[in-house]
Write a structure and sequence with these properties.
about 30% strand; 5-stranded antiparallel sheet; alpha/beta
Length: about 250
């Protein structure tokens, strides 16, 4: 399998190449480019399956790859390398795009490559890059990518009724009545959306959108009925916070 590293810093390229060589046996050939345009030429010439792309480079940033490659030509997965702030990292996570935070380590590189290779069959990387580009321009995030068996579905936060833990997966209930089994644990969403005020963790297995509450009942220990008729329990230690929250609506 071929990979390309696009980064304007020679030291960063060399360190990453060594880490890939030592920890990612599925990658057998690695090419390097010092800027986006020369990297695109290498992509067209060598048809890699994986591209490590620095997002901050002189002349053209990594995200501008959208401007130079036709969407039908994306047959590779991208892992961004970045020293970006927490705000931008959240944009990567919401777009379901993996990243390596500089300085990179062997374990992080190996894990990122494994996840990227799992995406290859249903990558839809062009769509995810468009969502990332949009997110990075906004003051507030409003959409999230949900990885599932057939690809990645992008939905507005407000379209999500609830998240329900299912082992290392999460069942995601949407306002259209559909349910998606997402290949992320519930903790991923509680961390990612913790500052979205209308999401509330009412139970260790449930993270709900309080805008979709239809009824609260004190019977049977207390439970919430949501707009999709899903009944959700409330943990005893969360009841006071929940009641304070709904009173403020």
């Amino acid at each position: 399998m071929k990979a390309i590293i696009i980064d304007d810093e020679r030291k960063s390229r060399n360190v990453l190449k060594i880490l890939i060589d030592e920890n990612c046996p599925k990658i057998t050939e690695i090419f390097q480019a010092e800027n986006l345009l020369s990297g695109i030429e290498l992509i067209k010439e060598h048809n890699p399956r994986l591209v490590f792309l620095d997002i901050e480079m002189p002349e053209h940033s990594g995200i501008e790859i959208l401007d130079f490659i036709d969407k039908d030509s994306y047959n590779f997965e991208i892992i961004f390398t970045t020293a970006y702030s927490e705000y931008a990292i959240k944009a990567f996570q919401l777009a379901a795009i993996d990243y390596l935070l500089k300085p990179v380590t062997a374990a992080v590189v190996s894990n990122a490559v494994d996840k990227a290779l799992n995406y290859l069959t249903n990558s839809n990387i062009h769509k995810r890059l468009e969502e990332l580009k949009t997110s990075l321009k906004k003051d507030n995030f409003s959409k999230i990518g949900l990885p599932y068996s057939n690809g990645i579905k992008f939905v507005e936060f407000k379209e999500i009724v609830a998240f329900k833990a299912s082992g290392m997966y999460t069942e995601t209930y949407l306002i259209d009545g559909s349910k998606i089994l997402v290949s992320k644990p519930l903790k991923h969403f509680t961390e990612l959306l913790k500052n979205v005020t209308y999401f509330f963790k009412c139970h260790r297995s449930y993270f709900i959108n309080i805008q979709h509450i239809v009824e609260y009942s004190r019977s049977d220990g207390g439970f919430i009925t949501l707009s999709n008729t899903l009944s959700v329990p409330i943990s005893n230690d969360r009841k006071e916070d929940f009641l304070s929250l709904v009173r403020a609506l």
